[in-house]
Specification:
Largest interface: A-B, 29 and 16 residues
Number of domains of chain B: 2
Shape of chain B: globular
Strand content of chain B: under 5%
Number of strands of chain A: 9
Radius of gyration of chain A: 17 Å
Helix content of chain B: over 70%
Structural class of chain A: alpha/beta
Largest sheet of chain A: 5 strands, parallel
Mean pLDDT of chain B: 92
Number of strands of chain B: 2
CATH topology of chain A: Rossmann fold
CATH class of chain A: Alpha Beta
Largest sheet of chain B: 2 strands, antiparallel
Strand order of the largest sheet of chain B: 1-2
Number of domains of chain A: 1
Structural class of chain B: mainly alpha
CATH superfamily of chain A: P-loop containing nucleotide triphosphate hydrolases
Distance between the termini of chain B: 50 Å
Number of helices of chain A: 9
Mean pLDDT of chain A: 92
Low-confidence stretches of chain A: 214-218
Order of helices and strands of chain A: EEEHEEHEHHHHEHEHEH
Radius of gyration of chain B: 22 Å
Number of helices of chain B: 9
Shape of chain A: globular
Oligomer: heterodimer
Helix content of chain A: 25-40%
């Protein structure tokens, strides 16, 4: 099993937003998490990425419990993409290069041609690398965040509405790129949240519904 | 003549007439400065007159413990004042500030008293209290600025901080740029004043010593020593407080914990 979370619970104040949630991922799988707005989809992904503290439950990556992973190396393997893309100041290329200044990725160098190949999928060329991130449209920022995340070669991508601001063409290209990426390596999987039922049908091999917990029951 | 011309209360009052001119101008042009200017002038006068009385008493002290107690009280007030300027607080922020301000100021002032000025006895209040006071005042500014900048910059750029964390960055890697920025901002006043000292501004302490009849060369060396003390204590204090805040706002699982902040009205 590539990734397994069992009995996850997350409480904000007195209310359990998530409770008893299991997530399992086999290599090569694309899983979509469904649920209404506020059901805790983002919170679940953040817990899986170790960005939020789960109050209950166990998480294991490659059958190794989260507690035994140094957090940075865990997160280098299971990368969360924010719903609103979070880029650093500077140009697109600064963003792609800065990743390799982190201790977790320093052994690997920045691969410009790989970045360009992935940008080409979105019909963007070298000139795009020189653009300042502050000037990018929402969709373009999502493209950069996606390519930056792929460049660290993670095992699992946690995609929080990754194409929400992209136009139809870019959305299809992103889906194609991600589906191919999952198949191209031996130990890769992705988890999606999306408000677009068609997108879920296109990308997800399996879906999992997140129902509100005690809040909806009460 | 014992080095300088003394000023009596009557002469001090004449200086107060300068403010009366300002008040008249403010009233004539309805600038609305009158009340605040008056309050500030009165506060300044009363506070300084009281301090004068206190200092006369303090300088007669021959008890190291009493002088130290006074020093601790001054540091405590500086520590609290530094926090009171910040809009976002976390649990333990007062302790962080107190430890940083007193740790850095006591260390630097102690070093200066024992190693540089070589005062006998070391706690001689005529030296310890004014030197410590100057160091504290400047360290307090730096701590306040750095702390405020660090927290604000984490809040405003939390997405970029988290981006670093999501890609496998450690908390230190995620915070480093913000720590550096906070230190830079905290040291701006000190560095600015060192840059123009003697060219644009004649520092108050040096001017005071010259007025009191000291050789300008002596006064200048004192000023240089105090500026080094101030710069070093300000940097130490600012780093201390930013480091405490960093440890508080990033947990050992390398998570950004802005939920530990609460906002207050300043």
């Amino acid at each position: 099993m590539l990734f397994r979370a069992t009995g996850l619970g997350r409480r904000l104040g007195d209310a359990w937003i998530l409770r008893g949630v299991d997530v399992q991922l086999q290599a090569g799988e694309n899983l979509a998490i469904l649920g209404t707005t506020g059901a805790g989809k983002s919170l679940l992904l953040r817990c899986l990425a170790g960005l939020d503290v789960a109050d209950e439950g166990q998480i294991a990556l490659n059958d190794r419990p989260l507690a035994e992973w140094p957090m940075p190396s865990y997160r280098a393997r299971i990368v969360y993409l924010h719903q609103r893309p979070a880029l650093w100041e500077g140009t697109v290329e600064d963003n792609l290069r800065a990743v390799f200044c982190l201790a977790a990725h320093r052994s690997r160098g920045y691969d410009r041609s790989q970045g360009l190949r992935r940008l080409a999928v979105f019909e963007r060329d070298e000139a795009f690398l020189g653009k300042a991130t502050a000037q990018l449209s929402g969709g373009e920022a999502e493209i950069v965040a996606l390519i930056r995340a792929l460049s660290v070669e993670p095992s699992v991508l946690l995609l929080d509405e990754p194409t929400a601001s992209m136009d139809a063409a870019a959305t299809r290209q992103a889906e194609k790129l991600l589906k191919r990426w999952v198949c191209d390596g031996p130990n890769r999987a992705s988890v999606w949240t999306s408000h677009d039922a068609n997108q879920v049908r296109r990308v997800a091999g399996r879906t999992q519904k997140l129902t509100g917990t005690e809040r909806s029951a009460s | 003549m014992n080095g300088y011309l003394q000023i009596g209360y009557g002469q001090t009052a004449i200086a107060g007439l300068l403010i009366v001119a300002n008040l008249a101008l403010s009233a004539a042009l309805s600038l609305g400065l009158g009340r605040r200017l008056l309050v500030a002038s009165l506060r300044m006068s009363v506070q300084l007159l009281l301090v004068g009385l206190v200092l006369e008493w303090v300088f007669t002290l021959e008890d190291a413990l009493l002088v130290l107690a006074l020093a601790v009280a001054m540091a405590a007030m500086a520590g609290v004042a530094a926090v009171n300027r910040t809009r976002r607080r976390f649990a333990g922020i007062y302790w962080s500030s107190l430890v940083s301000v007193s740790g850095s100021s006591f260390f630097v002032t102690g070093l200066a008293l024992l190693g540089i000025v070589r005062v006998e006895p070391w706690f001689e209040p005529q030296y310890l209290i004014p030197l410590l006071g100057m160091v504290l005042g400047n360290t307090l500014n730096s701590i306040s600025l750095s702390l405020d900048r660090f927290v604000e910059s984490l809040v405003q750029r939390h997405d970029a901080v988290e981006a670093t964390l999501t890609l496998g960055g450690s908390r230190w890697e995620a915070a480093h740029e913000h720590i550096r920025d906070a230190m830079r901002v905290g040291l701006i006043p000190t560095i600015n004043s060192m840059m123009v000292m003697g060219v644009v501004s004649l520092p108050g302490m040096m001017t005071g010593q010259i007025l009191a009849g000291a050789e300008p060369g002596d006064a200048v060396r004192y000023q240089i020593v105090i500026m080094f003390m101030i710069a070093s204590a300000a940097a130490l204090g600012a780093f201390g407080v930013v480091f405490f805040a960093y440890r508080r706002l990033f947990d050992h699982h390398h998570r950004l914990r802005l939920d530990r902040l609460r906002q207050v009205d300043v």
